[in-house]
Specification:
Helix content is 16%, strand content 20%. With 88 residues, it is an alpha+beta fold. The chain has a domain at 3-38.
Length: 88
């Protein structure tokens, strides 16, 4: 359930924790006058980690299968040692 910010007619501001579907009129706890919901300041956003890519949140199984697939499709960059070239 979210927390909502309310302001009464006399300017008192307060927070209430209730369900989205709760339609009952809200009353100020100080003066008991009617109150209306006001936009809240929002919450802070914290970015931490190595990066923010779609692949950062992949499952362990997906990452393992991608590594296997990548290893099987890579071609060797050098010819094998021992001379695989043409002879004169």
């Amino acid at each position: 359930m979210p927390t909502y910010v309310y302001r009464c007619k006399k300017g008192h501001e307060f927070e209430l924790f209730h369900s989205i579907s709760d339609d009952s009129p809200k009353r100020c706890p100080k003066c008991r006058s009617g109150a209306k919901r006001v936009p809240a300041g929002g919450s802070g956003v914290l970015f931490k980690g190595s990066g923010f890519y779609a692949t950062d949140y992949r499952s362990k199984g997906y990452k393992e299968s991608a590594k296997k697939e990548k290893g099987a499709t890579e071609a060797p960059s050098k010819p094998p040692a021992g001379g695989g070239g043409a002879k004169d």
